[in-house]
Each structure stands twice: as C-alpha cells, then as structure tokens.
Amino acid sequence: MTHRPPPTKRAPALLAALVALIVGAQATAQELNVTLDQNVAVIDPTANWLYDLTANQFVPLVRFDFATAEVTPAGAESWTVSDDGLVYTFTIRDGWNWSDGTPVTAGDYEYAFQRIADPATAAPMAYRIYVIENAEAINQGQEPDVSKLGVRALDDRTLEVRLIAPSAWFLSSLASIGHAVPRWTIEAHGDAWTAPENVVVNGPYKLVRLDIGDVAVLQANPSYYDADEVAIKEVKLYDIPQESTALALYEDGLLHTVSVPATDLDRIKNDPQLSAQFRSAPGTVLYYYDFNAMRPPFDDVRVRQAFAAATDKQTIVDAVTRGGEMVANTITPPGSFGHVPNEAGIGIPYDPERARQLLADAGYPGGAGIPTITLAFNASETHSRIAQAIQQMWQQNLGVTVQLQSVEGAAYSQTAAAGAYGVWRMGWGMDYPDANNVHAELFTTAVGAAALYHNPEYDRLIAEAAVEQDTERRAQLYMEAERLLVQEDAAVMPIYWSAENLLVHPDLNRPNSPAYNRDFWTWSWND
Amino acid sequence: MFVSIVRRVLALVPVLFVISVVTFLLMHSVPGSPFQAEDKPLPPQIKANLEAFYGLDEPLVTQYLRYMGNALRGDLGPSYLDRSRTVNDIIARHLPTSALLGVLGLGVAILIGVPLGVISAVRQNSWVDHLGMLLAVGGVSVPAMTLGPLLIWAVALKADLLPVARWGTWQHAVLPAITLGLGHAAILARLTRASMLQVVHADFIRTARSKGLAERKVVAKHALRNALIPVVTVIGPLFAALVTGSMVVEEIFAIPGLGSYFVDSVSSRDYPVIMGTTLLYSLVLVIANLVVDIAYTFIDPRIRLGDA
Fold it and tell me: Fewer beta carbons within 10 angstroms: which end of chain A, N or C?
C-alpha cells in the first residue's frame, strides 16, 4: 500500500498519515506507484527498447533531452564525429560498475550491438542499425562473423562506430537502441537472464520483484553512475490493463500518476480537485490515413487531394477523439527534429468547395461515376468512430459512397500494404525524435512497405536529409519532403498528433518534458 | 462404474489429439503473423530471422511433431511475445488465480441462480416470480464490462467498503466474483425455473402431493432433484469456461489471471500460447463433462454412465 496521502479523499489521508507515523515518515518521499507502461514486462533491450523496465535498468550511449532538443551524455560521457560524418568515437564513463561490481566497459556496448546484429538473436529492431558498417550483411546472414560489425571497443573506455553513410539522425537514434548488456549473465542464464534473481544492470534502477500481471518492483541501483541524483528509491509498477481501473486506483490513492482515458476527460476537467492535478501535453504519435495510389480512383492525385480537402480534422479532434489531440497537417510530430508546424501552411486545409472542384476536375463531378471507396481500419472503438465521422464527411462533401471495413489486427498492416483497401488507417509512434524515423521507415521506396507511394524525388529528399550535416538545410529538406508527400502528391493524409493526458499527484514532480517521460530517475517528491 | 470412468478418461486422448491438430492447422492457416507490428510490416529479413529463431521456417508437419513431442514431455514452448517466459510458466502462474476466481464466480451463480429459479417456479406468475425474472433478465442484459466498473465506482470508490481492484485478500475477490457470477446466475435462474415448471406439472409430483407430503418436501426432494438435470448439464461447460479465466472480469479488476492470454494470444498469433491455452481449456472441459455425467447418476439413478 501507499504511504502517500490519496489525492482526493480526506479520511484515508488521515489514515495514511497515521500509517506514516507508525512506519516512519522518512520512507515516504522515496516511493512511487505507477502503472506498467502498456503492460509490457519484457526487459531485454534487444527485444524491447523503450518501455519502463528496460529504459530504467540499462543505459544507452546517449539520451535525448526533449526540453532542449539535444542529445545528452549517458553511457558515453563524450564523443567526437569524424569530418566525413562516418566515424563516431565515444568515450565511455569511467569508474562506473554493473550491479554485480564488474566495471562497465566499451566492450559491453560492442557486445550489445553485435547481439542486435546477430541473426541468431532475431532482434526485431535490428534494421535500425543497418547504417552501421556490415550490420545488414551480418543480420542477413551474408557475413557470419559478428566481429566484423562496425562497432569496436578500441580499449575499455573507447568505442568506435563506423557508418556506411553520414547520418545526421544517427546519434539521437542511439538514445533508444544499443543499451549495454551484461554478456556473462546472458551466457550463464540464456533467456532467463532478465529474471529478478539473475539480472545484472548498469542503470538507475534494478528489478527486485516481477509478478507478471500484477506488479514489478524497481529499486534504485547504488552502482549507477548518477545514483546520488536518483530521488525516488523504489518504484512499484502495477499491471493494470484497463485505463478506467487505473484511474479508479489513482482516485483511491494507490497510484501516484495515471493516463486519463478520453471517456473520463470531461469529468476530470470539471472535478474541482482532480482538475488541479490534470495536465495535457503533446504526445509523439501520428494518426494518419494512407491512400492506395496504385489503383483507381486514388491513382489520380486530384482525387487524393479532394478527399484530404473534404476532411474536417478539427471536428475529428474536437468532437470524436476529444483527448486534446492536435490537428496534423504534416507528418513529423512536434518535439522531433524536422517537425513542420501547421502554421507553415504546408498540407491540405479543410475546404469542401475546393474538394468538390478537385473531384470534378478528376472526372467525378458531384461524386458521379466514382466507385465505392473502402475505408479500412484495424478493429478498435476509436478507429471505428473516427472512420465513421470521416465517412460522413466524405459522403456529404464529395457525394461519394464510403464503405467501412474493420479488420482484425494481426493481418492488418500486411493486407493493407498489399493494396487491399482504397484508404486505410495507420499510426506511428516516434522511436527517436527525428523526422528520419517516420519518413524513412514509412514512405520511402527503400522500405516502402507501409505506404503504397513511390516518388523518386521524395526518396531523394529523404536520403539527402539523412546525410545532410547542416541543420538548417536539413530542416529545409524535410519541409520540402512534407510538401511533396502530404500536399502535392497527397499520398497520405495526416489527421492528428496524439496528446498525453495525465493526472499527477500534487506533490510529485513528474517532469513535463518530454510529455511521455517514464525516466523515473528524473522524478521526485516535494519535501 | 470405475471401469466406465477409466474408459471415458482413455477416450479423452483421441479427443485432445484431434483438437490439437485442428487448432494447429487453424492458427497457421489464418492470415497474419506473430511478428507483425501494427504500424508497419516488418522488413522481410527481420521476419525471416524471427521465423528461423522459432523454427517457423520448417514444414508444418515437422513443426507439429516437434510441438507435440515437447508437449508430451511437459514443455509447452516459449511465448513469442516475451522470450523470457514459457507457456508452462504462464499457466502455472496464472491458472490458480483464474481457477479460484472461477470457482467463486460459479458459487455466486449457483447460490443465487438456482434458488431464484426454484422460488420463481413455485410461485409462478406471482410478484415474486415477476421480480425474480426481472432480475434475471437484468442480470443477463448487463454485461460484466458495465457491471464491473459500476461496482468499483459505487462500492469501492464511493462507499469505500472494498478494494478498487487487484488480487490478494478475500476482500479483493468479492466484487470480481459478483461481477463474474451475476450474469451466469441469471441464466441458471431462468433455466432452473423453466425446468422446474416442467417437473412440477408431472404426474409423479401430483402423486407426491396427493400422498400428503409437505409442499417443502415435494419441491426440495422430488421436483428440484429432477429439475436439476438440465442445470447440471449447463454447469459443466460453465465450470470449464469460468475456471480457465474470464478476460473481461480479470482485466477490469486487474487480476493476474489466465483469461487475457486466451484472447491476446489469438490476436497476436502467439502460436505456443494459443496451443497451450486451447489444450488446457479442452482438457478442463472434457473432464468437467465427465464429472457432470457422473453427477447424473447420483441425481437420477436411472441414468447410467455410458461408454461414449
């Protein structure tokens, strides 16, 4: 149970005070009760890279500070980049040990990258390090010797990373991949190395208990290099599958912070006490529709533009999702490098008049002659409600017939990419805060699997932006790419960027930036 | 009797074998892959590595034989969603919780449903009957998804009588057991009532009454016993369903049970978990049906335990 006073109730607050008196008040300022992010209890950084139990236990080379939009030192205290942008040399922190007392070395990072590249590990995100020398050949089994990977420990404190092309986004991508892992533990225990009794960590926290489906307990790791700065000494992560239940547990005093489900937003905002604990911040997830540009009628750019112009996104956000989302006219979410704000005027604004004109120009005046449009989404209540609203907008504004198709999840993205639908719903959460992540992975021909869009000019812009060293020029390239993708070619229709709606205990300092901060070592209690 | 039971138990083996083959073929024939992100298809090489890692690149027959070989030795394989977990581990960790919750839910269903049905039938067309059936229709119509949060709000948050959610003490079990049991209580009540109405108009009841037996004795000893046969028939599969976990109730109350694995494993194509949970459910179901068959012989001695 919590020793913190619950945020809303008086009587339990008194009781908690009494309990605190009995068990000793000084323990209270160091404990934190939260939900387990997305109910994911996977720990190995090779299989999972962003969730609570990984990011709080293992240290990547660098981290990313959303407040300043800068890459900051983590496992590496400093680094240099060669003039040609191909060789990164990291200096690993000195005098820093794993939780079993073994020193953390450059070799631990070398091993971590080799393990990701090794096809025998079958790491799902291995393709994200293909920019490293030989990574792709090793991962595809053409190069059997993993030590040929362009990541080498020159000595215990120096790590050299060689790339196949200069990549401006590479450094920030290291904030979410390549965490050092303890080779000796993995070799001793196999897949069970992440169990509480086996795990050896180098991060701010260490797992001491894991009751899957119930609770995971992290305790501050005294061997972490910044252990003195870690204010919260124990974090209990409760696995609460239903957001509404988590909210009830917050109101009851167990949890110290929760996400607010969209259905409860109005109540929270109107509650005199809870509204003071509520905060909303921009998230990092893009919600968008893909058009099937390979097949009529969407092979005609005017049709795609017409459908985009016939979509009133503001109404979607205000009347359907109602979670503080932000209308998106471009792709890259705010907070990431290469974000193009709506004010830049790129994208297709809501304009039913123009939409009808475009459709008429394409040979379908008043929607006459256009085949029935299939709008697909992966089965979910929210996706369905959004699709219904958009169906209505398109029917009203364009006079077209739109058929909704709810598709079961596991086969969805594959079927969509195979061209089964005219329009389909997609989403993307940023893996690292750089436009390259969303553009290169979703819309370029090289990957090309998510969208049915092929434009060599767009591909060129994204490739050029990836290697461009000049920041301003790089931002310019992404702006041009956005203009092409969402406006001139109208290959995709961005709809909104997510919002994070949170309740936070009045005495808890949960840093606001980034919105989705689960770095518990940066949290603290007010005294 | 004993020989019949042994024979019936042996007959389970081919049943489970057929179920395993059908499940295996079905799950591999539906489109979709366990290694499929929702936001984009996985690059082909990454997928190939994952398939090789789990042996999914081998022919189906080889995969099936390997799976069954391991399963017969008690190894149900890893979960594709979390390599550090095995299906054995998942079942061992979550089945006891689900089973306890299921038994409690079934208890609620029987203790409320059967008496309600009996009273309604005995007082047919009285206000008691109408009220009872109103409650039963209500119970069937209000799904756990609505009832659960409602109980949390009213009983736990407002009245502060019981914990909001989670598992551990008897207090934690009250609301989930009620949520789980109430809907089934309603079904049992209607079934008991219908069955009782049939029986109370039968000749032997008239005979019992004309012999001058007390009404209480007529109802309890003669009518109910015969009316229970269809009810017991339903309780068998119900037991199997409840004991292996109810996803909705477990998720609402954040109970670490097995229920969500049945559903999530299918939507994520986590093949070993699908196989493990399906076989487990089948096993519990056929055993529950066997127990029901044995129970018949006690309720009505004319029924004998057959071979099939």
Answer: C
Residue B73 CB burial class (10 angstroms; 0-12, 13-18, ≥19): exposed
State how far the alpha carbon of A158 is from the alpha carbons of A75, A87, A90, A173, A220, in Å.
Answer: 11, 13, 6, 19, 27
Give the distance from residue B36's alpha carbon to the nearest chain A alpha carbon, in angstroms.
Answer: 7
State the ipTM, two decimals.
Answer: 0.88
pLDDT-derived band at A26, boundaries 50, 70, 90: very low
Helices (H), B123-223: 127-141, 144-151, 170-200, 203-210, 215-217
B166/A139 Cβ within 8 A: no
Please name each of the domains of chain B with its CATH number: 95-258 (1.10.3720.10)
* Minimal C-alpha gap between B38 and chain A (Å): 6
Question: What mean pLDDT value characterizes chain B?
Answer: 90
* Contacts for A123 with CB less than 8 Å, ≥ 6 apart: A46, A47, A115, A116, A117, B46, B49
- Which among A12, A122, A212 is the nearest to B256, CB-wise? A212
Give the residues across from A163 on adjacent strands. A132
pLDDT per residue over A234-269, tens digit each?
Answer: 999 999 999 999 999 999 999 999 999 888 999 999
Rounded-to-10 torsion of CA B116, B121, B126, B129 = 30
| A346 vs A287: CA distance, rounded Å | 17
Tokens matching residue A21? 């008196």
Query: Which residue of B36, B39, B78 is in closest CB contact with A410?
Result: B36
A283 closest CA partner among A124, A120, A500: A500
Is 80 exceeded by the pLDDT of residue A18? no
Give the pairing type, strands A326-327 and A492-504. Answer: antiparallel
Q: Cβ–Cβ of B84/A194 closer than 8 Å? A: yes
Question: How confident is the model at residue A23, as a pLDDT?
Answer: 44
pLDDT reported for residue A450: 59
Q: Are A281 and A275 in contact (CB under 8 A)?
A: no
The region, left, alpha or beta by phi > 0 then psi within -120 to 50, assigned to residue A389 is alpha
> In this predicted structure, what is the pLDDT of residue B297?
84
Q: How confident is the model at residue A67 (pLDDT cuts 50, 70, 90)?
A: confident
List beta partners, residue B86: B78
Range B15-24 average pLDDT: 94
Alpha helices in B73-126 (DSSP H): 87-122
From the CB of residue A49, how many other CB atoms can be counted at a distance below 10 Å?
Answer: 24
Pairwise CB contact (< 8 Å): A11 & B164: no
Q: 3-class SS at B296?
A: helix
**Average pLDDT of chain A to the nearest whole number:** 90
| B247 contact A CB<8A | no
Contact with chain A for residue B34, Cβ under 8 A = yes
A261 burial level (CB within 10 Å; 0-12, 13-18, 19+): middle
pLDDT digits (tens, 9 = 90+) for A116-166: 999 999 998 899 999 999 999 999 999 999 999 999 999 999 999 999 999
Check CB contact under 8 Å for B43 and A127: yes
Residue B187: closest CA among B220, B235, B129: B235
d(CA A362, CA A82): 52
| A413, B29 Cβ separation under 8 angstroms | no
CA nearest to B148 within chain A: A245
Least confident of A12-21, A196-205, B226-235: A12-21
Determine the distance from the C-alpha atom of residue A114 to the mean position of all C-alpha atoms in its chain, rounded to a whole number: 24
User: What's the CA gap between A147 and A151, in Å, rounded?
Assistant: 8
- What pLDDT sits at residue A14? 45
Least Cα distance to A130 among A173, A100, A91 occurs for A173
What is the mean pLDDT of the segment spanning A430-458? 82
